[in-house]
């Protein structure tokens, strides 16, 4: 025990030195609470950015799909030409309808004549 009391100052310096080395090693190894909170906020911000980029990516794909469909649609001159042709066809069908009604009337008269004439 005398040896301990004689070398107490040296032992005390060694203990404090080892304790200081341990505290320094822990401070270097682990993150401070303030830095950790900052890192968490940065990670959350990055996650929000990437999740919104996923939404942007899906919207961009939808826009590309719509653009490709619009490219295949006819322009206004083509639509106007088709409308004009449809009007012409409607006029022709009206003429054919009148002709068919005359033919139907004549066929009806012929059938009636055959029926009455065969008696």
Automatic annotation (TrEMBL):
Keywords: Coiled coil, Membrane, Transmembrane, Transmembrane helix
InterPro entries: Phage_Mu_Releasin
Chain ranges passing through the membrane: 13-31
Coiled coil feature spans: 79-106
Stored Pfam families: DUF2730
Protein name per its UniProtKB record: DUF2730 family protein
Species assigned in the record: Thalassomonas viridans
């Amino acid at each position: 025990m005398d040896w301990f009391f004689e070398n107490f100052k040296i032992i005390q310096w060694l203990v404090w030195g080892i304790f200081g080395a341990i505290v320094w090693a822990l401070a270097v190894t682990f993150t401070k609470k303030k830095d950790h909170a900052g890192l968490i906020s940065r990670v959350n911000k990055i996650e929000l950015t990437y999740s919104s980029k996923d939404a942007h990516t899906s919207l961009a794909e939808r826009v590309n799909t719509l653009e490709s469909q619009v490219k295949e649609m006819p322009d206004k001159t083509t639509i106007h030409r088709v409308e004009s042709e449809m009007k012409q066809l409607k006029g022709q069908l009206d003429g054919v309808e009148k002709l068919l009604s005359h033919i139907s009337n004549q066929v009806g008269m012929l059938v009636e004549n055959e029926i009455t004439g065969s008696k």
